[in-house]
Amino acid sequence: MSKVKNAELREKSAAELSQTLDQYKRELLDLKVQQVAGTAAAKGGKIREVRKNIARVLTTITQQARADARAKYAGKKHIPKDLRVKKTRALRRALNKHELSRKTVRQQKKDIHFPVREFAVKA
Known about the structure:
The chain is mainly alpha-helical. The termini are far apart. The longest helix is centred in the middle third of the chain and has 30 residues, at about 45-75.
């Protein structure tokens, strides 16, 4: 078999992907048996290609599962940690816009009683 295209895999359903995965695993098993037996038909490049195809199928299955999970938790208050945006540690801990704009009661009173002075003449 030749290299499988990711675009083709994304169009398939989960059942079709698992069927494709089983097919590639069987092919890999056959190639490894041929390699051990010393048959000339088993080439290292072919084994490598099948292994990469298996990895592509598994990646597509994982991507689809994560997309389904994201859709399930869209709009919810709490999202599982593995679905959250990674960012950096500092950005995750930084205050958000709402927290930055909040003022203490004491600061609110200061702002009311001591507003910024406006001068008619500037130096």
